[in-house]
Amino acid sequence: MPKFLRIGVHQSNVSGYTSKAWCVRRVGSAVFLKWGAVEVHGAGDGRKVYWSRLPQEKTVRCGTAQRAQDYTKAAIARRRNHRYEPLTGPIANRRPSAARSAELKQALATILIVDIVGSTAKAAKLGDARWTKVMGHYYAAVRKELKTCRGKEVVTTGDGVLATFRKPAAGIACATAIQKAVRTLGLEIRVGLHAGEYTISGGEMVGLAFHIGTRVAAKARAGEVLVSSAVKELMTAQAAASLKDHGLHRLKGVPERWRLWRVEG
């Protein structure tokens, strides 16, 4: 069964991150597909990949073996052209440990969402090989700043990153540092920050706080860092002085209007 792992995050040779895997298997005129979130532990030849939750499955009945074979070849070709790499080892299922189960409890944190602006156009312009190298440098730069500011990476979202911080000031400092770092790669990002409660389930953020953070980031333009009023309220008066009122906004799918603030300087 050909298997593929979404590339980008593993380029920095780290352990303990969340990505996405995709599998295909042909039996006669039927094609069996499986995909979902995975956790990657270790690096290089010692890398282990685990389903972080039950994968989704689909059966495609093509009518003839030739059509099934053509469907499979086309599906594999699409994955190779969409930032996936062949995965030789197995993808295992495992039960959460007691330590991991503790992570499912609710927590209060500042949530940071980083997203590359115009990534699809840049990838098309640079080509797969160059874009893969740029993304490797991008994730390495983001992780370097997260480590400096004591942020915790939770999940990568395509070409974006979601992380949490104990203090909002640390999240804002990290956001501005990431901006400066990725500009040397010719990339522009938009960043949103929100403070609230959330849970982690199957490697994914769950809760309204996550959705609000995503919507705040969506309101930012290239080069902007926007924060919600919840972040501002948790900051000291001196730290909040760097924030400029960005007005009231409707956040898609979120009740009421929210006042956002733009990080200056």
Low-confidence stretches: 9-14, 98-103
The CATH H-level homologous superfamily of the largest domain = Nucleotide cyclase, GGDEF domain
CATH architecture descriptor text of the largest domain = 2-Layer Sandwich
Describe the biggest sheet?
A: 8 strands, mixed
> Which range does the strand content fall in?
35-45%
Principal-axis shape equals elongated
Overall pLDDT confidence: 83
Helix content: 25-40%
Count of helix runs: 8
- Give the C-level CATH assignment of the largest domain: Alpha Beta
- State the domain count: 2
Structural class: alpha+beta
H and E string:
EEEEEHEEHEHHEEHEEHEHHEE
Task: Report the C-alpha radius of gyration, rounded.
Answer: 20 Å
Whole-Å distance between the termini? 51 Å
Structure report:
The chain is an alpha+beta fold and about 260 residues long. The chain folds into two domains: about 90 residues, q64v53_bacfr protein fold, CATH 2.20.140; about 160 residues, 2-Layer Sandwich (Alpha-Beta Plaits), CATH 3.30.70. Helix 3 packs across helix 4 and helix 4 runs antiparallel to helix 5.
In brief, what are we looking at here?
With about 260 residues, this protein is α+β, with helices and mostly antiparallel strands. It has helices spanning about 65-80, 100, 120-125, 130-150, 170-185, 210-220, 230-235, 235-240, and strands at about 5, 15-25, 30-40, 50, 55-60, 85, 90, 105-115, 150-155, 160-165, 190-200, 205, 225-230, 245-250, 255-265.
Essential attributes:
seven-stranded mixed β-sheet, Adenylate/guanylate cyclase domain-containing protein, 265 residues, single chain, 15 strands, q64v53_bacfr protein fold, A/G_cyclase, 33% helix, adenylate cyclase activity
